[in-house]
Design goal:
Layout lengths: L1 E14 L2 E6 L2 E7 L6 H13 L3 E2 L5 E3 L1 H4 L2 E6 L21 H19 L4 E2 L6 E16 L11
Parallel strand pairs: 3-6, 6-7
Antiparallel strand pairs: 1-2, 1-3, 1-8, 4-5
Helix pairs in contact: 1-3
């Protein structure tokens, strides 16, 4: 599971010309689900993301989390985060989970993030053609993977 986390002054998701979600200061989270991902990946990334200290404290130092500042969150599913570009110029999405696995994990991520924040999170719509707008604050953009992906995979 992969996330791209952007600290925003504002963000919105529009589908078919209608705003589905919009927030003020907080996080826009793009979420990619892989075919090997499960609830443990959701748990790991929700905990890490909710506690990630990327908001400024009174001294202008990034020392506060979205929970600390009472920020809002929008979570948008994005299977293209699972792209492999190792061969050729056309990305391969073979590592992306299919709808039957990705939708429940995306919904679980949103539910768990809402629980962590103590308030609803905005969402996109899985599989829809979405227009995502944001004002990146900083700019601050962080990429993370769950332990199943990338560098955190345990050695055998």
């Amino acid at each position: 599971m992969r996330v791209v986390i952007q600290r925003v002054s504002s963000a919105s998701v529009t589908i078919d010309g209608k705003v589905k979600s919009s927030i003020g200061p907080g996080l826009l989270i793009l979420l990619g689900v892989g075919h090997d991902d499960d609830a443990a990946d959701v748990d790991y990334l929700v905990r890490k993301t909710a506690a990630l200290r990327i908001f400024n404290d009174e001294n202008g130092v990034m020392n506060r989390s979205v929970m600390d500042v009472g920020g809002d969150v929008i979570v948008v599913s994005q299977f293209t985060l699972m792209a492999s570009t190792k061969k050729g110029n056309r990305p391969s999405y073979i590592e992306a989970a299919g709808h039957e696995k990705a939708i429940p994990l995306y919904e679980e991520f949103c539910r768990r993030m809402s629980e962590a924040l103590g308030k609803p999170v905005g969402t996109g719509e899985f599989g829809a053609d979405m227009k995502v707008a944001l004002v990146n604050d900083g700019p601050v953009t962080i990429c993370m993977e769950s332990p199943v992906q990338g560098l955190w995979q345990p050695e055998e």
